[in-house]
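It is worth pausing here to work through a concrete case rather than discussing structure prediction in the abstract. The textbook approach is simple: state the sequence, then state the predicted structure, then interpret. We follow exactly that order.
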Amino acid sequence: MRPWMFVPAAGFFCMLALPLEAAQPDAAPGAPAARESIQSYTVEKRDEAVRQARRMLDAFDARLRTLEERLNADSARWSAAVSARIDKELAALKAQRAQSARQAERLGNASKKAWGATKSAFVKSYRQLQRRLEKLNSDMLARKTIHDRASSQSTGQ
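Step two, the predicted structure:
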């Protein structure tokens, strides 16, 4: 199955068919299972839930570093407007990551009464974090694909 993306290119919208692995090149293996496992923890297993949440955030940090390396490598190709937009997206992503970390810490302090709501708040925050990273990944992949195609056309390949 191929996801379809509409991306602006030279004033037109182009539809790109991307292989699933290209649409989410850094998708963390087992990420949905890890998120759902947080929901399965009881308050008595709070410490394990906190460790799982921290592992999830550590894996996210690794994916974010990889994305930032790719963005830095490609940044010379971008206009000032694109660079500003990417900087804004990265700042929002890092703010969302900080929010998820706060939610993870709240897991460790949650009372028995608040446990279910606290788990749900972390899972929701982490899902939003994942979606934001996946969107930035796919936006950058589409931008790179368009640039690569334009470059190969201009060089006559």
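Step three, interpretation. The chain has one domain: 45-154. The mean pLDDT is 77.
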